[in-house]
Specification:
This protein has 177 residues and is an all-alpha fold. The chain has ten helices and no strands. The longest helix is centred in the C-terminal third of the chain and has 33 residues. The model has no long low-confidence stretch (mean pLDDT 90).
């Protein structure tokens, strides 16, 4: 949101209000890909990003930009390691960082796909995979939240790119809606 404020000179709170339909859909479906048409519609009709930018940046983000997933996987991995009594070395933490970054890029935009990639991260640092059972009970709620974070990040990047490419209509952004 700081990037949005300083680069686009637009209010982050107003931006979030204009993206509510997409964020609510992301939260309820757990799927960045299912939310994509609504995200693109909000960006074009409510925020003011052009179709040219939105049709390129939003699908790319929905496919590759899983920042909420990366955060979740890192925290879940460290939590599971602590519960399992595995003390992580600096090298293992760096492996977690790299693996989570790569895994989040390759994570599918479907519900609970990050559980599979979390197993890959746990395996990379020799933490028991059974620890995933510890987070299964709360994964649905966490998945809803991280999907909304992913969609919000994709929308903000679309807005920043639109401004940088002079494909942003500030009149649409400032219109009452």
């Amino acid at each position: 949101s700081v990037t949005l404020l300083f680069i686009t000179k637009q209010s982050p709170s107003k931006f979030l209000r204009k993206m509510v339909p997409a964020l609510a859909t992301a939260f309820s479906t757990d799927s960045s890909l299912a939310t994509l048409p609504i995200t693109m519609e909000c960006l074009e009709k409510n925020v003011g990003a052009s179709n040219k930018v939105t049709s390129f940046v939003a699908p790319l983000g929905a496919t590759m930009n899983m920042d909420g997933t990366a955060l979740y996987q890192a925290i879940a991995t460290i939590f599971i390691a602590q519960v399992a009594g595995v003390e992580l070395s600096l090298t293992q933490l760096i492996v977690v960082l790299l693996t989570v970054t790569l895994a989040s890029i390759g994570t599918a935009g479907i519900p609970s796909a990050s559980l599979v990639t979390t197993a890959i991260v746990l395996n990379a640092i020799n933490v028991p995979l059974e620890g995933i059972g510890l987070i299964l009970a709360v994964d649905r709620l966490l998945d809803m939240t991280r999907t909304a974070v992913n969609v919000c990040g994709d929308a903000m990047v679309s807005c920043v790119v639109a401004v940088s490419e002079d494909e942003f209509d500030s009149d649409t952004f400032h219109a009452k809606k």
